[in-house]
Amino acid sequence: MKHFTQDENKSTMIKLDMNIWQSLINDSSKRKIPRYMHQIWISSVNHEEMYDRFQIAANSCIELHLNYNYTLWTHEKIKSWLTIYYSWFLPIYENYRYDMQRIDAMKYVLLFHFGGIYIDLDLKCKAQDLISAMLPLDKRDNEPDIILHMGAEGISANTDIMAAKRFHPFFKLAVSQLKAANRWFYLYHLTIILSAGPTFLYGIYRQFPFKNVFYYVPNSLLFGKLIECVGGETWHGQDTILISRFMKNKMWSSFMAFALIIILCVIFKILKKARYR
């Protein structure tokens, strides 16, 4: 695939990618994020049909975004699409241990290839044109390259809702590091968040030198006013419950934050050694 080549110096290539990307995209693409909404449903053995509450939430987003292109990406649709456009990524996708890893990885691939907005199926839309609604008035004519919102602990970049311009080097970097990050971290929850989830993406964010391309939506604006969670967390396991209980205790919360910082440092070293794939 043309956008990814082997044996690249990461730091040099990020800067080169930004220069090329900024010079090649047209004026309209520079100003606006594509109005394309992506959602992903990958079924498991026990839950082949989408939960009703997810379908209701998805319908709310579709109805409020009739001027957006919309795709619900299923496992079969993803595999067919990857076979045509990203055949080199298909083995990476299939080699994940858990469906949630596949979902997280595909968020980055789809936002890189198409641009637009990704939103989890457990989020109900409450506003039209979410891309514009997430931005202050002075940023709506010339939209930022990437829209994110950060986790409360400052050690993760939430991946439940994200928006980006097409072929952006930030998501190129994310996709290029997924293979190297696909490791077992001894706990189910840690494996999810560190190999492809929010903590993985925060590691990519830390590596990316052009911080001015990001806009961070305040959680106080996002939740309750623009979107509403209808009850997700279907991927959570028993260790997630245990970790959550620890995090409610201040002493354990500090310990867990410290442990995650150490793990992040290890991840950064792994990703630093890895080359683009």
Automatic annotation (TrEMBL):
GO terms for molecular function: mannosyltransferase activity. SUPFAM superfamilies: Nucleotide-diphospho-sugar transferases (SSF53448). GO terms for cellular component: membrane. It holds the Pfam family Gly_transf_sug. InterPro entries: Glycosyltransferase_domain, GlycoTrfase_DXD_sugar-bd_CS, Nucleotide-diphossugar_trans. The chain crosses the membrane at residues 185-205, 251-271. Keywords: Membrane, Transferase, Transmembrane, Transmembrane helix. One of its GO terms (biological process) is mannosyl-inositol phosphorylceramide biosynthetic process. It comes from the Eukaryota. PANTHER family: INOSITOL PHOSPHOCERAMIDE MANNOSYLTRANSFERASE 1, MANNOSYL PHOSPHORYLINOSITOL CERAMIDE SYNTHASE. This is Mannosyl phosphorylinositol ceramide synthase SUR1. It comes from Rotaria sordida.
